[in-house]
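Take a minute with the sequence and fold tokens given here and flag any structure token that looks odd. Thanks in advance.
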Amino acid sequence: MNVNIAESWKPYLEPEFKKTYFKELIEFVKDEYANEKCFPKGNQIFEAFNLCNFDDVKVVIIGQDPYHGDGQAHGLCFSVNEGISHPPSLINIFKEIKTDLGIPYPKSGNLERWAKQGVLMLNATLTVRAHNAGSHQKKGWEKFTDAVIQIISEKNENVVFLLWGGYAKKKGAKIDKNKHHILESGHPSPLSANRGYWFGNKHFSKVNSYLKSKKVELINW
């Protein structure tokens, strides 16, 4: 079975592709895409990996589900396609960047520019049925993305993991803290942000401070 994923990831992830759970997951996804409207587009399911090669990973942002509205999701957590209005969490991310770094609020919510600089924008679940949040959870994606996080932790070093909210913190529980830098805060969703758990975390300047300390090129947020 061929998985449309960048060559740089294949040596690390091909053992997962051969496992029974992953084969069953792909059959489920194929069936869903054949019979239901699903997001993102089929050729963008692994876009987070295709825009950020394994050896280039500097930062990992862990999301939960793809956006389930028309035209939003394109394979990167928190990111939306060009011309799509910004969802509430993304608005709060941009507000924090503006406060933290003085970068003006951008017109585009497409975060491919981050991915191409080494930010892996990984949702825990990589697909979703249209207008049905969480519809592809507990089908195997979480097991796959747990494996991705573990592989990055084991095979890489000096990666910054951004764990926003309780779900992401659980997802990142096994990251090797001796090799990597972990930044935690509340989720950027309005529910969390408006209660004081997001704004002021300064994660974007902290990422660059850490990368600078390791003599790694900074992220242009």
Notes: The mean pLDDT is 97. The beta strands are 38-39, 59-63, 119-123, 128-129, 160-164, 181-185.
